[in-house]
Amino acid sequence: MFLTEYSAELASLIIDETWLCKLAYLADIFSLINKLNLSLQGLDSNILRSQDKIAAFKKKLGLWKTRINTSLDMFPTLSDYINNNPSIKADMIICDIGKHLDALSQHFDEYFTNDNFIENFDWIRNPFDVEMSDLAGCELEELAELSCN
Description:
Distance between the termini: 70 Å
Shape: elongated
Number of strands: 0
Number of helices: 9
Order of helices and strands: HHHHHHHHH
Radius of gyration: 24 Å
Helix content: 55-70%
Largest sheet: none
């Protein structure tokens, strides 16, 4: 009402159902990104956990992309808005959401590409599943003791 009273340019967007659907989607996706961001912080965070969480989010982006044609339950605000407004056709924004998820996935791939970096830390994830040919005799003995401890 405020925007309409003052003839603001944005007043027309508040009643545009397509724009409101896109806004609801953006609220959901930013909420998910914010949740990821918060999970990467804190005292217990380290490079291995962070890498796992980022890899999981990248996989979720792919899952969401394939599921948007059948369900929007991963975007609760958008889903609620569409369910409460039966006149809205979800098909009109699914294409835009798919394009956005593709672009977001590409950006994540650009920013987090160094998968070989994390492979250098496999010995930390599972220290008893590494190649032991590089270890000296006394180191092999220590590893044998440690693996049984």
